[in-house]
Design brief:
Layout (H helix, E strand, L loop, with lengths): L8 H15 L23 E8 L7 H16 L8 E8 L7 H11 L4 E3 L4 H13 L4 E2 L23 H15 L5 E6 L2 H11 L7 E5 L6 H11 L3 E5 L2 H13 L5 E4 L11 E4 L11 H16 L7 H20 L5 H8 L11 E4 L2 E5 L1 E8 L2 E4 L4 E2 L9 E2 L16
Helix pairs in contact: 1-2, 2-9, 2-10, 3-4, 5-6, 7-8, 9-10, 10-11
Amino acid sequence: MGETRGSRAVLAAVAAVGLTVLAGCGSAPSKPLISPKIAVAGATAKAILVGGIAPLTGGGDGAGIAAGSRAYFRFVNARGGVYGRRIVYRVLDDQGQARLAPSLAVRLVQQDAVFAMFGVDGTAANVAVARYLNSSGVPDVFAGSGCGCLNSPSLPYTFGWQLGDVQEGKLLGSYVAGHLAGEKIGVLYENDRFGRNELAGLMAEHLRINARVACAADGRGVGSCARALRASGARVVVALASPAVTQVLGLAMAGLGYHPQLVVSGAGDARMSGVITDGFLPSLAAQRGSPGASWVTLFRRVHDDYIPHVPFDAAVMTGMSAAYEFTAAMFRAGPDPTRGKLLGAMSGLAQGPAVAPLVYSAGDQLGITGGYVGVMRGGVLFPLTTVLSTDDNIAGPVVADRAVQAGAPATGIPAH
């Protein structure tokens, strides 16, 4: 997720936050929130219960993202909630193991009776629960995955949000083709759904690749891949892999004395200075007075008020941004929300913190339509391009985005 992926240092800092979120649901059965007036699971006159699944203790940025979302919901609740209803965010820990996600989803739907699922983190977890949620009639919104497999007419209750895997591959490929095409190029990709989709998007930009190597999602064989890339003479290495795999790759290349220009997918380890990657939210280095800077200022304010002990980074900002959009959708759903009204409210949802417009329409529920490419320095992504838009169609062009992003509302609360 480009600048949406923070460092492992977040994990220790948010451990207490994650445990607090988890403790909110406890291990004993809880009484479903069902309002006789509204007759919708998860809704009362005073609260809306929202479920989530994330790797709070399994590595990656799940804990930081969940902490950011929870902080923004607390910010909203302190200002009257959504038409007087608090948003109660109950997120369960799948420990980074997708096999746990189905049972957690069943617990949230059948035992806790959530109104909707929000921000399920990771492609594998989303794939594991999407069909169950759709068959149960539970809105599955702002999925934390870029897999086009979730953007399907067979999953009408599922709405993506972050930049799609194919889109991201195309954006990175477009940058490499325009700025690094004179160099020998090597590609490492995870041999799974994520990696293959990213690779397909990258190759759509007609790059001349000198070496292309696949690795296991658990990082096995990365050392031999690094040696193969060095032997190819590649001076630019595009890594389409998870943070763990990208980190191992970087260490393996350093051990070989091999230092190519790294270009990594937003899901990869973008912490190393000089790494080129992409983002779909405003840079933390956004210029003062710009719309992007107003969003950073808002979320920093929320951070300082509610989770000052957690590093303010792109993972936290990602969680806050998704929570802002969910809050906007709930306001659009009206003072007497139903699941159907929430689904209807997604169509035409304003761009909000995203740097490119959102697409939610019949037959296309992908989410954000574009992003920018930048270089990481000191943990901050500095843009190298303007905002670029594309879709998840391999043949779709990458073009300059013409939409003008609106600034954050002065109140910090979506218009209603």
